[in-house]
Design brief:
With about 120 residues, the chain is mainly beta. The chain contains no helices and 8 strands. It has one domain: Avidin-like (Lipocalin, Beta Barrel). The chain has strands spanning about 10-15, 25-35, 35-45, 45-55, 60-70, 75-85, 90-100, 105-115. The protein has an 8-stranded antiparallel beta barrel. The protein is globular, with a radius of gyration of 13 Å.
Amino acid sequence: MTDINYNDRFFISVSNSASGEVGADTVFHYRQRGAVVWATYEGGQIQFGTLVATVKDDGALDMRYQHVNGDGELMTGRCHSTPELLPDGHLRLHESWQWTSGDGSRGESIIEEIMR
């Protein structure tokens, strides 16, 4: 899994914990240069968001994220994403996250690659 290239891949949420704000209408656009990954995301309850991450030796991502939600609040958090290569070659990311703003709650989510 260490040779995953996240560059120019698009993802949507397929599941999220109740305290999460990302939903099925949120689209992520990932980019990568070396071991640095970043993305923009928007849609659904997210007006606009960004994330930055580093790729670990096992292909997992250690990331920080920030976005403006539908209520106009700036929200921030941290996330660990573990990749799964699907039989069709697409990626699924299993995420464990925690808000660093708001209530500080934790959650789990899954995003899957889509073709654009």
